[in-house]
Q: What sequence folds into this?
């Protein structure tokens, strides 16, 4: 049997175990490293046309050029989003880029969890209990059935969030540039003005960068909550900090953040963090931060690995060697 050779970069231990277990079934022989792809380790891809990368590190155009010179013509990114790769440039120099889809339930479940935690002031409550302060003064919460929730982006994940919210009895409105039958659609400005809670599920690109800018954040209802499990760049974080510090917003729960590269997935306990966006947000009592982990379930990881193997195998079978 002829095996398809691929190199898997930036692969954690749990992913690596899945790749090793599944690869023989798909006729793939993987070279696996936990290091992200870089100029220094391109030689690990020698003799292959296909590589797999994670979403955790940005791939520069100079690195794409170097990969092409090394013979790489296909990149499978183990993510839904492409914002860490300049796909247009890659295609221009002869590298095809393809994403994977995975269990949308992972992110949808996590999003609703963050909604509940924000609405019930979970951060303040947990911090108090850790210090044996069992008072409940000032942490009375809100119920989702009494809230209008605005969903920005109604693709697979946004639609799954909407399905869950229906079970809570929330009033749901939505915004998407390509509306479906998933919800009642309104303009983006109307959504931020009418929602008690706004949740983001749209891709990050040139059109959606700082979709929630200072102007739109100011339009949000006093006391409203912002939930972001999409991409950090969808929100102007400096403007968000201002809106939280002045008390305009009731709180935020953020699984993604501008400037998360080099911070999320790292042990930063002994690094200078005081001036970072994450530290400024973390100091606020009504802000929850988690390290881009909404997708991180055993089911979703299995989906990612399986689709990566399928994608690379299909590319090798369907694309003639140069």
A:
């Amino acid at each position: 049997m002829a095996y398809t050779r691929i190199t898997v970069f930036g692969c954690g231990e749990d992913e690596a175990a899945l790749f090793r277990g599944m690869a023989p079934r798909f006729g793939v022989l993987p070279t696996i490293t936990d290091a992200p792809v870089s100029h220094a380790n391109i030689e690990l891809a020698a003799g292959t046309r296909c590589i797999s990368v994670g979403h955790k590190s940005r791939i520069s155009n100079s690195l794409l050029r170097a990969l092409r010179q090394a013979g790489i013509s296909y990149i499978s990114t183990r993510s839904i989003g492409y914002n860490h790769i300049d796909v247009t440039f890659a295609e221009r120099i002869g590298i095809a880029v393809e994403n994977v889809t995975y269990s949308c339930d992972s992110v949808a479940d996590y999003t609703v969890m963050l909604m509940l935690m924000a609405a019930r002031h979970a951060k303040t409550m947990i911090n108090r209990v850790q210090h044996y302060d069992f008072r409940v003064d000032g942490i009375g919460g809100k119920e989702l059935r009494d809230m209008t929730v605005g969903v920005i982006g109604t693709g697979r994940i946004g639609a799954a969030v909407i399905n869950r919210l229906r079970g809570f009895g929330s009033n749901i409105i939505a915004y998407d540039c390509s509306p479906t039958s998933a919800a009642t659609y309104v303009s983006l400005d109307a959504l931020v003005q009418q929602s008690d809670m706004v949740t983001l599920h749209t891709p990050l690109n040139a059109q959606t960068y700082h979709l929630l800018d200072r102007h739109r954040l100011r339009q949000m209802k006093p006391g409203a909550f912002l939930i972001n499990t999409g991409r950090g760049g969808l929100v102007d974080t400096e403007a968000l900090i201002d809106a939280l510090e002045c008390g305009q917003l009731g709180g935020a729960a953020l699984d993604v953040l501008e400037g998360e590269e080099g911070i999320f997935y790292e042990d930063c306990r002994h690094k200078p963090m005081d001036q970072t966006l994450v530290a400024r947000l973390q100091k606020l009592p009504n802000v929850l931060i988690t390290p881009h982990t909404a997708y991180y379930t055993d089911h979703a990881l299995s989906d990612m690995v399986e689709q990566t193997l399928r994608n690379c195998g299909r590319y090798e079978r369907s694309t003639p060697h140069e």
Remarks:
- The first strand starts at residue 4 and ends at 8.
- The mean pLDDT is 94.
- The two ends are 22 Å apart (CA to CA).
- The first helix runs from residue 13 to 22.
